[in-house]
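Tutorial handout. Part one gives the primary structure; part two gives the three-dimensional structure as tokens.
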Amino acid sequence: MPRLAVAMLSHEGNSFTPVPTDLAAFKSGTWVIGEAAAHAAFADSAHEIAAVFDFLAANADWSAAFLRIAQAGPAGPLPRETFETIAADIMAGLADGPFDAVYLALHGALLIDDEPRGDLELVRRVRAAIGPGVPLGASFDLHANMAPELAGLLDIGAGYRTHPHIDQRPTAARVLAILRRCVTAGLRPRGAIIGMGAILPSINMRTAEGPMAELEAFSRGLEAADPTILDATPFGGFSYGDSLAAGATAMVWRDGDPGLAAAALVAEMRARRDRFFIRLPSPAEGIRAALDAGRFPVAVTDPGDNPGSGGIGDTPGLLRALLDADVPVATVFVFFADPALVARARAAGIGAAIAGTLGGRLTDAYGPPVPFSGTVQTLSDGRFRNTGPMMRGVEANFGPTALLSLDTTPGGRNLRVIVTSLSRSPHDPGLLALHGIDVADIALLCAKAKNHFRAAFLPLVSTIIDTDAPGPAAIDIASFPFRHAPRALYPLPQA
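Part two.
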């Protein structure tokens, strides 16, 4: 009976946020070990690990050992101790082998505080532990910063094909299917990873339209034209991960030489480089456009503080613009992460008056705190299961939360703000539902979010307006202080 080892260490590291990713961040996110716990958490979800249960159901002669499965929301680099703790769990599980194949669910933009190519370090350790003959496969996020060396360590890799990411489960299924062929039919794929020479902004990287949609179509064409091409993935890269592997890449796996196909794909990427760079309106411009849209509800986003890109849930630019506009329609702002403010709201109770500041708690680099006064409207434990297409069925945990009305704040007469204890991506309507909010009942929904938000909310609003406010994930890549990324990468300033 072939035996499969399964492990996950998935994290998108932002080099420019003040918040590191410690072990507590993983334990409040995804922290699972063993088959029973993995089944309870993921079997009926859109998660990569759900694909393993699909694989086992379809291949009754296989068994699987579920090693450490760890995932945390995007934030700063992992302290070395955090990485070593998770890696030790994975290595201990591999020591219980032998295994016939190993599947890793990775991100591709993992940063350790002293090693900005964290995924490469982990894969090197796994390969050393299992030896050169055991098939090793990995799935990656579309926003992976792929080190070319990975192609020599893996036997197969694949990346998400959708942004917003709604295909984690089928991506893992592709990897598992190839691993099975490696074990049962002796398949030995070869991979190539080639950089395109640019760090791209992800705001214009959606796969429903635009340059990334065209690249995905080209990749599917490569696979259709040549059945020996097992997977072709254009990686947009993660804009805010400062490493030697920074930037967009093309990856191709083939039963044969992948070089020509990878070169063709990266040429298509280079031809579209400039189309990824766009201008966004300021928060004030975006709010004016939303009020003039003619049909509500309208969503206005702040991608510069998007937690899905390592945002901190703390920048005040969009809120300040809302108060300056004194919006005349019902508006909900999602969100600020401030556990102390949530604790004060819970102590005061529903209906109580409350005052303080919003934003600028962690740093004033993106603007000073915004004073407010208002009323506590609702409280929650911050937990729900995603119902939208992004990570459907997986539990979300924002920690204890509060919905505050800013009704006595100048400019805040129609404004309510959700405050959370943890900074998480607000891409699912479940967070609003926890606070009794139906999108159809409001006019403006303002969110610290970016493209993932669109998967669930685009059908619920008349339009989505992205804005450009200061934050650790702002659109102007060249303004960030890169230290490790090659200076030749466009659009970094040349030395």
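Part three, for discussion. The chain has two domains: 3-276, 283-474. The longest helix spans residues 168-185.
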